[in-house]
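Quick one: co-fold with magnesium ion.
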Amino acid sequence: MMFMVAGLLLAFLVSNTLWFNVLESRRIEQGKEMARDMAYSIASTMEFIRSYPREYRHIILNQFRDMGGSRYLVSINAEYIDVDPIYESERKQTFLEDFNGAIEEKIGSRLEGLKVEFADPLELRVYNGVKLVDLPERWAQNSLIREPEPAPVLVAQVPIGEGEWLYLAGLLREPYYLSEARYLSADQVLFVLIMLAILLVVSWFMVRWLTRPLMKLASAARHLGTDLEYDLKPLQVEGSREVRETAIAFNFMQERVLRFIEDRERMFSAISHDLKTPITRLRLRSELMPESDVKRKMIVDLEELDAMVKGALDLGKSTDIHESIHAININQLVRTFKDEFKLMGTDIEIRGIARRPFFGKPLALKRAISNLINNAIFYGKDVRLDLVDTRSELKIYVVDKGPGIPEEKLEKVFDPYVRLESSRNRNTGGAGLGLSIARNIVHAHGGRLQLRNRVGSGLEAAIILPRI
Ligand SMILES: Nc1ncnc2c1ncn2[C@@H]1O[C@H](COP(=O)(O)OP(=O)(O)OP(=O)(O)O)[C@@H](O)[C@H]1O
Ligand SMILES: [Mg+2]
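Sure, here it is.
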């Protein structure tokens, strides 16, 4: 919308400038023409009157008035009548120069004693003491004088004999010619403002029409990404063609993703479940075997197999899509951990706080964090929890002072059933699933789980959760 407004203003300014320039040059042209026109008329009137003997002149003047020469008022006065000049502008000077030039051209020489001025018709005096507007004649009723902005009157006076001044007053045809042109008038500004207002209203509706489906799409995509428990319905197909096609594509993708997840879960638990029965059968059978080394080894293997199947079922449940999202008070959660582990004889240090609740699956998150804490306690010592809460992310660091993990194994330990040699030797009974389960859970929340060896010694496991 900002771009649109800027565009409109720019277009307006450019077109206004162009238009203004065209108008200006036309005005100047017209001014020249008008000066010439008036100069010719005045010069010929003057020559005409002068060509008559004095005693006839008043008859001619009467004639002039009667013939409806409405644009000129002609009279003869005994003396020069003072005129209050108006329009002191450069343009007026140009006009007067043009005017004088034209008279010279017409008569062939300069007119001795010619005085020309512009006057306000409402103030102009035609005879001594008599104002133009007080004249009862037709001339004074000329509509141009009555306009809101009356056209200026061009007054030319020239001595034509002893004690005789010829007085000619002519109305300018175009009233606005002499006034300084204004680049931006109030009318124009108002016009643009109205246009802008209408444009803004219309474009607001349009932008909303365009973006509302996009917002819905964004929220649907977010839910699909983090919260499968949310009632994932197909998007409504509406809006512009592109948006409609995007919605259709999204619906198709969502359906496929959901089906994939469902299939994977079902298959995973089916396989692990189905494995349990034959394993149990095998164990029973091996119990019946005569005591031997092979029997003992077989039982150990079967136990391991059993643990793995249990772990696999666990792993399948870890991303538990059947838990719904709640606002989790992370500070409280962390304190619970502290208390629980204290009971088991480990003191956990806590630093930092979460500023806001986090929206996630409480049990799953609890499980992810406790897997990391268990590892830290088990493989390290001096466990510490650091909370770092920013506008966009919530970071939970589980830090210990153990041996850490060899750099080249940092990725590997995330794989299911992977345990490092050292921990195997300790025969801790872990299945090697803790980290993969934790990572599944964190991924399901749209976050990431990172392992890093600390300078000195120890491991830092970071759960980084996006705040949406
Ligand atoms: N804080 C740590 N310090 C050193 N090594 C670690 C740490 N955390 C994990 N490891 C190594 O990574 C391996 C994988 O850890 P993971 O939690 O996935 O499995 P586990 O702890 O062996 O078994 P489970 O957690 O399933 O009982 C561990 O066996 C251990 O060797
Ligand atoms: Mg573990």
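If it helps, The first strand starts at residue 72 and ends at 77.
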